[in-house]
Amino acid sequence: MNEFELIGRYFKRPAPSALLGVGDDAAIVRPTPGHDLHMSVDMLVEGRHFFADVAPRALGHKALAVNLSDLAAMGARPRWALLSLALPKADEAWVAEFAAGFLALADAHGVELIGGDTTCGPLTLSVTILGEAPAGQALRRAAAKAGDDIWVSGELGLGALSVRQRLGWLNVNDAELLAAARYKLEYPEPRLALGAALLPLAHAAADVSDGLMADLGHILDESAVAAEVWADALPSHPALEARRGEFLACLAAGGDDYELVFTATPAKRAAIEAAAAARGCRVSRIGRIVAGKGARLLDSAGVEIKLDKDGYDHFG
Amino acid sequence: MNEFELIGRYFKRPAPSALLGVGDDAAIVRPTPGHDLHMSVDMLVEGRHFFADVAPRALGHKALAVNLSDLAAMGARPRWALLSLALPKADEAWVAEFAAGFLALADAHGVELIGGDTTCGPLTLSVTILGEAPAGQALRRAAAKAGDDIWVSGELGLGALSVRQRLGWLNVNDAELLAAARYKLEYPEPRLALGAALLPLAHAAADVSDGLMADLGHILDESAVAAEVWADALPSHPALEARRGEFLACLAAGGDDYELVFTATPAKRAAIEAAAAARGCRVSRIGRIVAGKGARLLDSAGVEIKLDKDGYDHFG
């Protein structure tokens, strides 16, 4: 067993739901009868998706969180994860911290790590997540209907604010706000409980990873509808309220939010607010689905606001 | 949509068995009732797992083949794959060739690519493979029993010979042999049909990726048994027969074979040979499982042969 295989042992945990966990050619699980299997993969590369000096515990959390967020956007319950990890060197302290962050979030959501691969290479992570939902039930991007409300969970813009401050594009002098923003960037909380609760309530959903307008745009494209989004309704941190105009690009198109954007018939407003409140999750109604094509961001007078970019582009 | 997302389109194919394929937050499939789900992930890094100048079509084949080989070793039928791909630049010609190699092998085995992620970064691949087998049936490493025969499929040593020639560790002057070796290295054929046929016949199985003695060692450790392996019985290419001694390290411990090593009771000899013959696959009986610990490689006089390394170590 080489050093990297030894390091893989940091991730070896009991997986009571698995028939066979880490240590054979493949892991074996028994899917729940009457359920569909939902799965997604995300790859994170140093310098593209995270700063080189990110704390390994935060990186472990985020690597899993961004995948769980995809399942939240489907309304699926996460079950199993596989982790591929390329590391420049076999740094045991780093791996211990990374594993602690990853596994703490996994435990919090009942996710079992049942497979993986650890190797030597430029720091790169790839997490595969598998979840389940009752057969035929899912929050698909293609399900939005004209007349739907558009909702978003939590608060927007903080992750993007943190990235842009770090890159020197912004100059924010509010230490408390910056700390909150950095925490939101590094420890996003996937909205799994909300997503599952929305299965019978919402039509379409997506998670906000590339920026609200971009991710809403995917829903619109897949559903062949358009949207009006009310800039004043975009939820954010109290410290940003007085400076909404300045930070509108972060709010509407910043990315790294890992909130849910979803659509639902107006008849479900009260039920959605109750479901969110029961899960301690803020939800805000931010616009409506209309016939047509594309998303328009509107000011309080109903005039369209044009942003330079409509989403965060990792390669832009 | 950025260049990398556009390139992701090369992998977008109809996935008739999926309820939802590429293009939402997650893919959705419906597992076959009465079956267990088998899954594995492998990460390949340039310069560690493949040469930087490998043809992209060969790399696409191999990235999937090494994963399929894991399922073959479980006796599972492959169903779905997810691909994470980090590329230094958005080279469309390269991606077209890579996708062609990957998808040709996928098509040959009825595998549907239902998810993935393409991003910018040092060339790194991670493939997640999912397969199914009837509930409770699997070729586990932990199932070998004292008295079992040890078998291996196909021929050993050619992949390792190609790597070692390329690295300058060997000096082979047989162009035909070198061509065969390189082909075996770059286009390994996962032994899926054989693996599935072995489900009712074999006890334990593993795929030979790190070298016969190392991978057999995993079976022994998990099964708490020992093995005698007969050096003269290790199957190889006809051109190597006259030089077995010289190439014994490649045969017994070379790696990159992607053959199956498996154990079975002697009562199944005829059935195993018939099952392999029906699938056009050579199988060779190379030793036996005994009580104890560890694997011993024996010469024709029964004297133990000690190799410098008992397996190929990517970081050795």
UniProtKB/TrEMBL annotation, chains A, B:
<feature type="binding site">
    <location>
        <position position="141"/>
    </location>
    <ligand>
        <name>ATP</name>
    </ligand>
</feature>
<keyword id="KW-0479">Metal-binding</keyword>
<comment type="similarity">
    <text>Belongs to the thiamine-monophosphate kinase family.</text>
</comment>
<feature type="binding site">
    <location>
        <position position="209"/>
    </location>
    <ligand>
        <name>ATP</name>
    </ligand>
</feature>
<dbReference type="InterPro" id="IPR006283">
    <property type="entry name" value="ThiL-like"/>
</dbReference>
<feature type="binding site">
    <location>
        <position position="40"/>
    </location>
    <ligand>
        <name>Mg(2+) 4</name>
    </ligand>
</feature>
<comment type="pathway">
    <text>Cofactor biosynthesis; thiamine diphosphate biosynthesis; thiamine diphosphate from thiamine phosphate: step 1/1.</text>
</comment>
<feature type="binding site">
    <location>
        <position position="25"/>
    </location>
    <ligand>
        <name>Mg(2+) 3</name>
    </ligand>
</feature>
<feature type="binding site">
    <location>
        <position position="70"/>
    </location>
    <ligand>
        <name>Mg(2+) 3</name>
    </ligand>
</feature>
<protein>
    <recommendedName>
        <fullName>Thiamine-monophosphate kinase</fullName>
        <ecNumber>2.7.4.16</ecNumber>
    </recommendedName>
</protein>
<feature type="domain" description="PurM-like N-terminal">
    <location>
        <begin position="23"/>
        <end position="132"/>
    </location>
</feature>
<dbReference type="InterPro" id="IPR036921">
    <property type="entry name" value="PurM-like_N_sf"/>
</dbReference>
<dbReference type="GO" id="GO:0005524">
    <property type="term" value="F:ATP binding"/>
</dbReference>
<feature type="domain" description="PurM-like C-terminal">
    <location>
        <begin position="145"/>
        <end position="297"/>
    </location>
</feature>
<keyword id="KW-0067">ATP-binding</keyword>
<feature type="binding site">
    <location>
        <position position="25"/>
    </location>
    <ligand>
        <name>Mg(2+) 4</name>
    </ligand>
</feature>
<feature type="binding site">
    <location>
        <position position="210"/>
    </location>
    <ligand>
        <name>Mg(2+) 5</name>
    </ligand>
</feature>
<feature type="binding site">
    <location>
        <position position="42"/>
    </location>
    <ligand>
        <name>Mg(2+) 1</name>
    </ligand>
</feature>
<feature type="binding site">
    <location>
        <position position="312"/>
    </location>
    <ligand>
        <name>substrate</name>
    </ligand>
</feature>
<feature type="binding site">
    <location>
        <position position="207"/>
    </location>
    <ligand>
        <name>Mg(2+) 3</name>
    </ligand>
</feature>
<keyword id="KW-0418">Kinase</keyword>
<feature type="binding site">
    <location>
        <begin position="116"/>
        <end position="117"/>
    </location>
    <ligand>
        <name>ATP</name>
    </ligand>
</feature>
<dbReference type="InterPro" id="IPR010918">
    <property type="entry name" value="PurM-like_C_dom"/>
</dbReference>
<dbReference type="GO" id="GO:0009228">
    <property type="term" value="P:thiamine biosynthetic process"/>
</dbReference>
<feature type="binding site">
    <location>
        <position position="117"/>
    </location>
    <ligand>
        <name>Mg(2+) 1</name>
    </ligand>
</feature>
<dbReference type="GO" id="GO:0009229">
    <property type="term" value="P:thiamine diphosphate biosynthetic process"/>
</dbReference>
<dbReference type="GO" id="GO:0009030">
    <property type="term" value="F:thiamine-phosphate kinase activity"/>
</dbReference>
<keyword id="KW-0784">Thiamine biosynthesis</keyword>
<feature type="binding site">
    <location>
        <position position="256"/>
    </location>
    <ligand>
        <name>substrate</name>
    </ligand>
</feature>
<feature type="binding site">
    <location>
        <position position="42"/>
    </location>
    <ligand>
        <name>Mg(2+) 2</name>
    </ligand>
</feature>
<feature type="binding site">
    <location>
        <position position="49"/>
    </location>
    <ligand>
        <name>substrate</name>
    </ligand>
</feature>
<keyword id="KW-0460">Magnesium</keyword>
<keyword id="KW-0808">Transferase</keyword>
<feature type="binding site">
    <location>
        <position position="70"/>
    </location>
    <ligand>
        <name>Mg(2+) 4</name>
    </ligand>
</feature>
<dbReference type="GO" id="GO:0000287">
    <property type="term" value="F:magnesium ion binding"/>
</dbReference>
<feature type="binding site">
    <location>
        <position position="70"/>
    </location>
    <ligand>
        <name>Mg(2+) 2</name>
    </ligand>
</feature>
<dbReference type="InterPro" id="IPR036676">
    <property type="entry name" value="PurM-like_C_sf"/>
</dbReference>
<dbReference type="Pfam" id="PF02769">
    <property type="entry name" value="AIRS_C"/>
</dbReference>
<dbReference type="Pfam" id="PF00586">
    <property type="entry name" value="AIRS"/>
</dbReference>
<comment type="function">
    <text>Catalyzes the ATP-dependent phosphorylation of thiamine-monophosphate (TMP) to form thiamine-pyrophosphate (TPP), the active form of vitamin B1.</text>
</comment>
<dbReference type="InterPro" id="IPR016188">
    <property type="entry name" value="PurM-like_N"/>
</dbReference>
<keyword id="KW-0547">Nucleotide-binding</keyword>
